Structure formats: C-alpha cells, structure tokens
Structure to design on (485 residues):
C-alpha cells in the first residue's frame, strides 16, 4: 500500500521541508535584526552605501528563473523519451547555474574591494570600537601621506592656514615654509624677507604662500586629501607665532588649540575621500563608515552565502547528470531522478525569489 | 533509480504542459520586472511610500513563489499527496515569526530620541 507517490519524491519533499525551516530561520533573524536595530538617525544601509547593485540582483533572478524553466523542460523531454533534448536542457540549466554563481562572485568581489565585511566597517565613531576604527583609518592615511612627503607637508601648512578662527602670523608662516624647504627638495615655495613679516606686506606674503601651497598640493590629490583628513581628525596645540627673543621687547611664542572635527562629520569625510579617490582611479582604500554596516554584511553574507552553497550543490548534480548523458547512461528511466533534482532546483529558485527583494529592494 | 514510471497523468497532452511552463515563465519574468519597477517608483520617482512598495514587492514575491511551486514543482497535481508535509512547515514558519515578533515590535521607533542619545532598552 503506502502513498501513491514514488519513494524518491516523498524523500525529496521531506528534505525540502527541512530546508524551508532552515531558510525561514535565517530570513526571520534578518527581519528581526533589521527591523529592531536601526534608528531614524542611522538607518539600515542603503544599497548605494554597501556597493549593492539592484539591477545585478534582478538579472540574477531572471537567470535562475530561466534555469527553472529549462530543468522542467528537461524533465518533460526525458519523460517523452527524448534524451538528446533533455541533455541539452540539462546543459543549459548547468550553464545558467554557473552564470548565477559567477555573478555572485563578482558581487562578493565588490564587497571585498570596498571592505564591506563583518568586523571591518566603521560604525560607532564615538564609542570604544570607534577608537580602533579611527586608528585603522589614521594608519592608512599616514601610509598614503608618506608616499609624497613634500605634498603632505605642504598640505599640513595649507590646512593650518585654512582654519577659520585661528590665524598664523607671517613670522610663523615663514618659519614653517623654511622647515618645509629644509626637509624637501624641489618645492616651489617663497621664503619671506624681513620687510614682509609685518603689516600689509605680511598679509600679502601669507596669501602668496597659500597660492603656492595650493598649486603644489594639486599634483597629488590623494596624498593631499589624506593629509587634510589627518589634520582634521587630530586635535592639536597649534603654534601661531614662533616668537622673537631678539626683539625689543622680546616676543613670546604663542599657541592655540585646534579641536578635531566631530565624529559625525568625520564618517562622511572618510566616505567622501574613498569615493573621490576611486573616481580618480586610485582608491585610498579606507575602511568605510557605514552605520550598521557590520550587521548588514553579516546578514548579507550569511543569507546569500548559504543560498550560493545550495546553488553550487545543484550545479554539481547537474554536472554529474550531464556526464551521465555524455557517456550514454542517461535514459527515460531517469525521468524521476531528473524530476527530483528539478524539485531541489526550484526550491533554490524560490529561496532566491524571496532573498532578492528582502536584501536588494526593501 | 529503477522507480516505476512517473505520474504523467497531467502530461497526457504534453504540449499543454510545455505551454503552461512557458506561460508561467513569461509571468515570472514580468513579475520580476514589475518588482524592480515598483522599487524604482519608490526610490527614484517617489511615487509610493516605502510601506506600499514593501507590501507590493513581497506580494509579487509570494505570487512568483506560488507559480513556481504550483507548476514547476507539480504541486498543482501532487498537492493532495504532499500537503501533510508542507503545511506543517508553513505553520511552524509562521509560528516562528510570531515568536520573534516581540523582538521586532518592541524596537519600533515611533518616539525615538534625537541622534546621539542612547536607545531605550525596550518598553
């Protein structure tokens, strides 16, 4: 007696039911984490922030839908005894599955390239993990700035000259220019003569130096922007006047405190530097600042990773069936086998039908 | 795999079945494009709210999954023989959503503080 159902079909459906529970658990956790955590101030990352392209996901969905069609046509063909046609459809299904995996690999490579990985993304800049993240950013910026010391030193002075509420005296500017010229060769900066250190001549001299610095820093924008960001990240006591012990009466050295830029702005500046350096063709590769980016990355890689592993399993089975066909072992007696493999493949398709909107569209 | 011949009662006229598959495929392609257009309508053209877009997109996903299940997975013909396994899985899945609902609902942000303040731990 028993069910009017082949054993294989019963077994496959039983397996698929367990797979339904598996993916329900993963998707359920994603829904809870996503709905439960972000705030209006720091919402869940948008696709643009995490380098996710919706059109690629839609294309992949279409690829999988096509492969679902070809596998069901393969089964229909083999049930009618048309093994050649079934082999062709199996080959097309295999190819489409491989295309899906290749596109996934490309998408993963994009995430790796932009360091959108669990544990690598900067989030709470003003918390304890923020300190580690900013240290990593600072380290990377210093590496980039070291590529062209002359431009970096010039940018340092230019940043200090560009401060809104702190003014360097012409004497201090001259001292800094002298230091840059001593440490670097081939830098087109003018030292001041003694008449240029006071009054209108002094102000004119500072403007001239500013123009020269802007010209020098233009030759290496990555280094200049990195040094600029380093200056903005750091709070420091800035000497505004070196003083003059020989003057009558003696002039004391003066300093003012330059505060660092607030954490919220800093994140935006880090992302902007990444984008602009990438547009110039040579990315600075700073770890990105994406609120809830680590959580996003964990969810994305867990969901799509497990799905991709399931697709890979299906692709392996299709390759074996194709081998069988190529050595002449495939026949109409294998119609049930093809149906069962098709059931598994359709399930994988259904999971992606839900994953695509949940990860890419909403 | 020396199983008895598969149940092809539904494939008496195999041309009909193939035609059904192609119609379902066409519908799936159209629905995939539709969900992408709904997304663009929300994000780029600002024609609908994100809640409307969510409801429509997930609705489309359910319809697509149903089409794949009914036709490609032959449930239209085999449902009577398989529902005893599939229905409990969906009941359990729904139950799991209900069980997890407090963790989602409690954290809804209707009266959330301004940026920078700490989040309340829950109601």
């Amino acid at each position: 007696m028993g069910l009017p159902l082949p054993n294989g079909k019963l077994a496959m459906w039983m397996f698929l039911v367990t797979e339904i529970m598996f993916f329900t658990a993963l998707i359920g956790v994603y829904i809870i984490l996503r709905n439960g955590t972000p705030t209006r101030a720091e919402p869940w990352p948008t696709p643009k922030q995490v380098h996710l392209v919706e059109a690629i996901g839609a294309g992949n969905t279409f690829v999988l839908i096509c492969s679902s069609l070809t596998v069901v046509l393969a089964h229909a063909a083999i049930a009618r005894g048309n093994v050649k046609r079934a082999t062709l459809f199996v080959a097309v299904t295999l190819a489409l599955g491989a295309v899906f995996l290749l596109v996934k690999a490309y998408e993963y490579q994009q995430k790796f390239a932009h360091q959108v990985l669990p544990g690598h993304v900067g989030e709470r800049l003003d918390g304890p993990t923020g300190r580690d993240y900013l240290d990593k950013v600072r380290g990377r910026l210093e590496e980039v700035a070291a590529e062209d010391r002359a431009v970096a030193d010039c940018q340092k002075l230019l940043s200090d000259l560009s401060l809104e509420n702190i003014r360097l005296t012409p004497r201090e500017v001259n001292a800094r220019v002298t230091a840059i010229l001593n440490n670097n060769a081939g830098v087109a900066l003018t030292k001041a003569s003694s008449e240029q250190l006071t009054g209108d001549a002094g102000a004119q001299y500072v403007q001239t130096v500013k123009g020269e610095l802007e010209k020098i820093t233009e030759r290496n924008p990555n280094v200049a922007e990195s040094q600029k960001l380093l200056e903005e990240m750091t709070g420091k006591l800035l000497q505004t006047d070196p003083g003059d012990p020989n003057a009558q009466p003696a002039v004391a050295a003066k300093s003012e405190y330059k505060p660092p830029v607030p954490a919220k702005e800093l994140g935006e500046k880090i992302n902007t530097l990444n984008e602009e350096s990438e547009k110039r063709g040579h990315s600075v590769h700073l770890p990105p600042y994406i609120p809830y980016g680590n959580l996003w990355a964990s969810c994305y890689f867990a969901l799509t990773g497990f799905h991709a592993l399931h697709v890979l399993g299906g692709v392996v089975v299709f390759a074996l069936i194709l081998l069988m066909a190529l050595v002449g072992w495939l026949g109409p007696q294998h119609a049930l086998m093809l149906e069962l493999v098709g059931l598994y493949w359709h399930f994988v398709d259904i999971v992606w039908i839900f994953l695509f909107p949940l990860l890419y569209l909403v | 795999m020396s199983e008895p011949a598969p149940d092809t009662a539904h494939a008496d006229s195999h041309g009909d079945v193939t035609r059904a598959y192609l119609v379902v495929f066409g519908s799936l392609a159209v629905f995939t494009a539709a969900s992408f257009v709904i997304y663009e309508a929300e994000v780029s053209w600002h024609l609908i709210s994100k809640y409307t877009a969510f409801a429509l997109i997930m609705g489309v996903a359910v319809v697509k999954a149903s089409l794949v299940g009914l036709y490609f997975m032959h449930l239209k013909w085999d449902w009577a023989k398989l529902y005893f396994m599939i229905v409990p899985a969906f009941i359990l899945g729904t139950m799991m959503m209900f069980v997890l609902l407090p963790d989602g609902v409690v954290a809804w942000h209707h009266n959330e503080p301004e940026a920078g303040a700490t989040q309340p731990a829950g109601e």
